[in-house]
Structure formats: structure tokens, C-alpha cells
Amino acid sequence: MAFITVQTTINAPLATVWEKWTSPEHVQNWNFASPDWHCPSAKTNLQVGGEFHYEMAARDGSMSFDFWGTFQKIEEQKSLDILIGDGRKMKVTFASTEMGTKVTEEFEPENQNPEALQQAGWQMILDNFKSYAENPTS
Q: What is the rounded distance in angstroms from the CA atom of residue 133 to the CA atom of residue 4?
């Protein structure tokens, strides 16, 4: 099965990007694809075998779900290998470049939605993260 890839380059130092990606108090501020959704709670146990749980919810209360996974491998400020709760694999890499910090997500698609829709949704969340991570007051 082919992985779907999304990426962005963030105008912020690697340490800042890593912190805002992995700390639950930051995750709640960016982990949603559109303004009508939010992330009311986030918990992260950032160690191999540890889990993250991000509540993804429609702001109108009509729908919510727990997006969760288990950390399989962690390279501090470099990469996270994750087994998503439904058994799919995911990898996030972080790299310093001349343009800023490049964040790349690769994930196995689920089989309920078209791959193009999944890629667009994950890219919107990543773009939301970029906006949040580049904001010096966040």
C-alpha cells in the first residue's frame, strides 16, 4: 500500500516546531482542518510505547472522535514513527533547512474516504500547524 505524503516548511526554529507539535497544550490550538472543528483535549505520553489521544470535534457538538496512536520510535527533533489506533502506520519527520523547518507526514490511507480527500484534510491540518507554529505569541 502506498503512503500519502503531506509537507510544509515553517519559518521557525526546529526546537520550537518540535515543541509545538509534541506538547498537548499546543496541539489543541492547531489540530483541526477547518474553523468549524477543534481539538478540545489532547494528551501525549511522548515515549516509545506511549500513546497520544487527540479529541477531534465539530464545534457544533454534532460529532467527535478520538484520534490516537502509539509511538513506535522517537528521534528527538527528527522523527516520530506512530502506529495509529486503527493499525495504520504514520511517520512524521522534522528537518532544518535554509528556508526553515520542514515537516513531512507520511501515512497509510484508510479505506473509507478517497485518498485525495485524505491528503487534502491532512494538508489542511498541517497548514493550520504552520500558521500556529509561525505565530510568536503562540
A: 23
- φ, ψ dihedrals at 49, nearest 5°: 90, -15
Strands 4-10 and 51-58: unpaired
Whole-prediction pTM: 0.94
pLDDT value of residue 1: 64
Say if residue 22's pLDDT is above 90: yes
Cβ atoms of 80 and 92 closer than 8 Å: yes
72-77: which pairs have CB atoms within 8 A and are 24 or more residues apart? 72/48, 73/48, 74/46, 74/47, 74/48, 76/18, 77/14, 77/15, 77/18
Residue with cell 472522535: 65
Contact 31, 53 (CB under 8 A): no
Residue 3, classed as helix, strand or coil, is: coil
Q: pLDDT for 43-93, tens place per residue?
A: 999 999 999 999 999 999 999 999 999 999 999 999 999 999 999 999 999
Residue (of 40, 63, 44) closest to 52 by Cα position: 44
